[in-house]
Design goal:
- The structure holds two protein chains of two kinds.
- Chain A has six helices and 13 strands.
- Chain A is an alpha/beta fold.
- Chain A has one domain: Rossmann fold, CATH 3.40.50.
- Chain B is of the alpha/beta class.
- Chain B has one domain: Alpha-Beta Barrel (TIM Barrel), CATH 3.20.20.70.
- Chain B contains ten helices and twelve strands.
- An eight-stranded parallel beta barrel of chain B has the order 1-4-5-6-7-10-11-12, surrounded by six helices.
- In chain B, helix 6 runs parallel beside helix 7.
- The model of chain B has no long low-confidence stretch (mean pLDDT about 95).
- The chains are: A alpha/beta, B alpha/beta.
- Chains A and B meet through helix 1, strand 8, strand 9 and helix 6 of A and helix 2 and helix 5 of B.
């Protein structure tokens, strides 16, 4: 069973629909017991950084996720804001503390000739050899929609980059955590393939 | 590189797709979920649904279409029509929309733009501006093109961006359904005045028109309706032609 964590933010239906299409047994839940019992955890997210962390804490999910993902090593997929909240801090509408699982800071795109948000399909460049990118070709296109991006402290956790006024973190791979700035659930065939790869993924911690 | 987007625009009335000319003379263009599925298969980058007869009575029908679309197509889609309050925005997002288009309310209650941006993020707030030409200027109309606000389209879009809109859907009522090309001049004025993406809309009649919207209109995306409904063009074909014209589009 895959648990899509419901904390009142984001495109939960789309994520569930995408996993269902590829034949996964998936539940959308905020029940700690269901999350503890899940074989894989998905943290989607749309909205603002501070609100996201606040909602996770208000639902009592911070500790549960910490236990399941950090201590027990359950395979984890963060999507968009669900990737950003892994950071130490986020700078959207003031400085907020994130989950702090992946050291770094989430910053707004800067650049005078850059339109923000970064909206649309853009190519990613995988930076690591991983079964998560199997079958995607060398520069697959994914759908992005965000104004902030994750600047990580340790570049070795960057699994893929994308270019928008310079390279930024498109995906993170760290132990049992895989996270994408883009939306695989909105990226048609490439996205579904990536989600299938996540289902098959056995992280080496 | 960020790709230029091709976005089929689907108008909804009583659960069916329709398309007119200059916002009137509507013709039936089929079933929305079927159309969405076809555009998905043809490599469209995104979809826009606008409920042009939005009322409380047919809201359930709209949510139903959104939920079914979200089950069948795995690309982003924007939904608009009758969005007045933050609760309307929330309901559409919960039903499965990725973005919500705000039109009349963006003029009547601009605070809705900032409220929605703060609660749900700018990325899902699309401000939809309909205009008619008045000489070299563009005047904004609301209520499906029926009410003249006398406001200038460039000013309205600039203000919307300041309030936190994530994108502008800019529609020329004069060009709508005429397939005579986008209003490139106004599109460029707006695109140059804001630092958020602008979707050109109204008038697409050929791949050349789409290319011009990107090159001369400085648009980030193009909305297309009649060209796909009433000709043999589809996203695959226009993308192939745009690619030859040197426009960076995603392969269909």
């Amino acid at each position: 069973m895959i648990a899509v964590v419901d904390y009142g933010m984001g495109n939960l239906h789309s994520v569930r629909n995408a996993f269902e299409l590829i034949g996964a047994d998936v539940t959308v839940t905020r029940d700690p017991e269901e999350i503890r019992a899940a074989e894989r955890i998905v943290l989607p997210g749309v909205g603002a950084f501070g609100e996201c962390v606040k909602n996770l804490e208000a639902a009592g999910l911070r500790e549960v996720l910490q236990e399941v993902v950090l201590e027990r090593g359950t395979p984890f997929l963060g999507i968009c804001l669900g990737m950003q909240v892994l950071a130490t801090t986020g700078e959207e509408f003031g400085v907020h503390r994130g989950l702090g699982w992946v050291p770094g800071v989430v910053r707004r795109f800067q650049g005078t000739d850059l339109r923000v948000p970064h909206v649309g399909w853009n190519e990613i460049e995988p930076r690591v050899e991983s079964p998560l990118f199997r079958g995607l070709g060398h520069a697959p296109c994914f759908y992005f929609v965000h104004s902030y991006h994750f600047v990580v402290d340790d570049p070795r956790v960057v699994a893929a980059t994308c270019d928008y006024g310079g390279p930024f973190t498109a995906a993170i791979l760290y132990r049992n955590m895989f996270a994408t700035q883009f939306h695989p659930e909105k990226s048609q065939e490439a996205g579904l393939r990536l989600l299938e790869n996540f289902l098959d993924w056995e992280p080496v911690c | 590189m960020l790709k230029r987007r091709i976005i089929p625009k689907l108008l909804l009335r009583n659960g069916r797709n329709v398309k007119g000319r200059q916002f009137v003379d509507l013709r039936d263009t089929g079933a929305p979920v079927t159309n969405a599925r076809i555009y998905d298969a043809q490599g469209a980058d995104e979809l826009i649904f606008l409920d042009i007869e939005a009322s409380d009575a047919n809201r359930g029908l709209l949510y139903d279409i959104i939920a079914k679309t979200a089950e069948e197509v795995f690309m982003p889609f924007c939904v608009g029509g009758g969005v007045r309050t933050v609760e309307d925005v929330r309901a559409l997002l919960l039903a499965g929309a990725d973005k919500v288009a705000i039109n009349t309310a963006a003029i009547e209650t601009p605070s809705l733009i900032s409220d929605a941006a703060r609660l749900f993020g700018s990325q899902c707030v699309v401000v939809s501006v309909d205009f008619r030409r008045d000489g070299s200027r563009a005047r904004v109309f609301t209520h499906g093109g029926r009410c003249d606000t006398v406001l200038d389209a460039v000013d309205v879009c600039r203000r919307a961006a300041e309030l936190g809109a994530g994108e502008i859907l800019l529609t020329s009522i004069d060009r709508d359904g005429t397939m005579s090309g986008y209003d490139l001049e106004i599109t460029r004025q707006v695109a140059d005045a804001v630092r958020i993406p602008v979707i050109a809309s109204g008038g697409a009649g050929s791949s050349e028109h789409l290319a011009a919207a990107f090159l001369d209109g400085h648009a980030s995306a193009v909305a297309v309706a009649s060209l796909f409904h009433f000709s043999d063009h589809c996203p695959i074909k226009v993308k192939a032609q745009l690619k030859i014209a040197g426009i960076d589009v995603r392969a269909a």
